[in-house]
Amino acid sequence: MRVGVMGGTFDPIHLGHLVTAEAVRHRFGLEQVVFVPTGRPPHKRESDVSNAEHRYVMTFLAVVGNPQFSVSRIEIDRLGYSYTFDTMLALGEVYGAGCELYFITGADVMRDIHTWHRAEGLLTLCHFVAASRPGYTLSDYIAQTNLEKFRGSGHIHLLEVPAMAISSTDLRRRVRMGEPIRYLVPEAVENYIREHRLYLEGSCSEKKP
Ligand code: NAP
User: Fold this and answer.
1) Spacing, Cα 153 to ligand 1 middle (Å)
2) Among residues 144, 152, 159, 202, which is most buried (max CB within 10 A)?
3) Which atom of ligand 1 is nearest to the CA of 104?
4) CATH number at 2-195
5) To test the ligand 1 pocket, which listed residue (85, 105, 115, 161) has its Cβ within 8 A of the most ligand atoms?
6) SS3 per residue for 176-192
């Protein structure tokens, strides 16, 4: 059994994330993809990220219609920092020894992976699929890390996903500027953002729903 673990802040989740998950699911023959919104990312100030419950609900709304997608609270409910190593270890126990895990995230993230908690151990626990925005090659990213030694292991994969031209940063800016986000996020997510007045100047993104 092969399972994808889609790790991200998802602030907010957008169609680029969904297209990425589906592309990786198809490419690697994954039976399912579990979306794991980050809890307390070690590399970000808490005030830079919207409340975890809002991000969880938006992720749930985005994936609920697809039986091969699901969302996990594993990082949101964990006390302390969210380390991917701990998440993959825990999910490995949930799915059992015969399961191959594929951690999926943005290729930009991979640049810093050598600084992550137990990075070398992580790459022995799972495959790592980096979704690239158009115009980057695996070598561009590998060259910026000290992960050369893992290159031959077959554990790092890069997938170019044109739909990743959409970015959460740009979506937050669009909402703040009153620009449309329709067709960039699922309709239910767009409605949720509007109802909860997320991403507006002085909005309640930090408060619980
Ligand atoms: P981020 O800095 O918010 O995002 C970096 C880039 O990757 C952005 O361009 C982002 O685009 C893209 N991206 C993020 N998640 C993606 C996904 N699932 N699919 C495609 N592109 C994605 O990164 P982050 O979200 O905080 O962290 C990503 C994952 O790495 C999380 O699971 C996090 O826990 C893990 N991480 C772990 C450690 C550690 O264990 N020490 C350290 C850092 C990160 P958008 O903004 O459009 O999403």
Assistant:
1) 22
2) 159
3) 18
4) 3.40.50.620
5) 105
6) HHCCCCECCECHHHHHH
Neighbours of 147 (CB within 10 A): 21
Separation between Cα atoms, residue 38 and residue 74, nearest integer Å: 9
| Domain locations along the chain | 2-195
pTM of the model: 0.93
Q: How far does residue 202's CA lie from ligand 1's centre (Å)? A: 25
Residue 42 contacts residue 82 (beta carbons within 8 Å): yes
Per-residue confidence in pLDDT tens, the chain, 209 aa: 999 999 999 999 999 999 999 999 999 999 999 999 999 878 787 778 999 999 999 999 999 999 999 999 999 999 888 899 999 999 999 999 899 999 999 988 877 787 888 888 888 889 989 888 777 666 666 666 655 555 555 678 888 888 878 999 999 999 999 999 999 999 999 999 999 999 997 665 555 56
Separation of alpha carbons 135 and 66, rounded Å: 29
Cβ proximity of 62 and 188 under 8 Å? yes
